[in-house]
């Protein structure tokens, strides 16, 4: 039997949910490693819905679980039903939904609140010493919950290639150690069993993002 890995999604679409390419890369690489992905999402309303053509919020309302089911091809469970005992690892892809629907990072930064269901799941895997993989913006969840942990969201100096580098500085303010890494690299916090990679925090070709996520997934499966 392959490892059973929980994948937690935050909707469908980079600006208001889970980043679709990152989510797909996680699922593809888990399949390649012979692991079984079990997809979950919270049954809550999105913070808002963004028109991905205009990049502007609309008046529409959508549900995080219903939208995440699009990526999971309908094979998804309510996050409230996740039982850490039957699972070997946890992975949370990025996308603005992590900062909007799984937490309030988008509006409150380091003073954010993590959704109770998401916090409980992260703490349960951590307490069970089971590995957690995070990419793009999702390492901010660990930064908030596990003070002193080591993470990467890429680089900490803003430039055209690293447009979101200020995130690293904010994470440092929470007492974390940020480690600069290229998009194809990962960082492993051995003590906390956290595996992180920058993904779309970097303005990089999509195949490099895919490769970085592959390394993250492989290490998570290896540690499980």
Automatic annotation (TrEMBL):
InterPro entries: Class_I_gatase-like. It comes from the Eukaryota. This is GAL3A protein. It comes from Fregata magnificens (Magnificent frigatebird).
